[in-house]
Design goal:
This protein is mostly helical and about 300 residues long. Helix content is about 75%, strand content about 0%. The protein is globular and about 50 Å long.
Amino acid sequence: MPKVRSRQLATLLLVSVTAVWGSTFFLIRDVVRQLSPADFLAVRFTIAAVVITAVFWRQVRRLDRRELTVGAGLGVLYGVAQVLQTVGLAHTDASRSGFITGTYVVLTPVFGAVLLRDRVPRSTWLAVGMATAGLAALSLRGVGFGYGELLTLASAAVYALHIIGLGRYSSSGSASGLAAVQMVVIALVCLVCAAPGGVEMPSGTGPWLSVLYMALIAGAVAMWAQTWAQSHLPATRAAIVMTLEPVFAAAFAVTLGSESLTAPMLLGGALVVAAMYVVELVGRQDTGATAAQEPPAEALHHEVS
């Protein structure tokens, strides 16, 4: 597949993933009324791990020791981020949690510059600022920073490390196996957190359907899609694309829930979409590269010494 088409498909796939994540807001809210957050995460990711491993078992067996180690490390990062975010959500408002989690769009290029010595163009910093302002308009209400906010900020930092790791180590050939290994480790992390009090299962058709949707579509399929997409996209670009999640969440809240469309929602969504435009189009002009000349993500990362 040509490089340009691969990157376009990766961007489209990542946008689809964020739409799926945005659709889970009401489902998660309803399920955690019945289950504790730890039990919900354990059940969700265990189902996802079993299914994705069964589907991609041959790809897992083809991974070498280094790739297995990378997948395990990335799985630990994602699992820890999920736990931190969920526990933090119990101590802060959902809207504030959404904004603080979205700061991974800022932390990703910062960590990339510090840890990997990535060169971040000015247009990317502009896009980061626009996306952050958009997230604030969509989510932030009031001020204050306590225990829940601190845990959520820690989760955003770990998500940023996961995004950087995927961008650096994933490849289109290893994506399926790598996604399965990550999911198994995520499930183990969540099971360890839920084990002390015992793991409670959902009861009733509605909760089970919600858990299955989040396990299979928002879990297994989304992890595979993110892993494959990030083998073709630089980490910072992927982070900015993923800021569409609260935009989709707001859209679902208006169309499927009882929330009304507000000016901050419109402003926030417009800023996030504009940030994607800046990083995708203006960014190429800043570097003097055309779409056909810009190397894929794995080439960019291998050039870092």
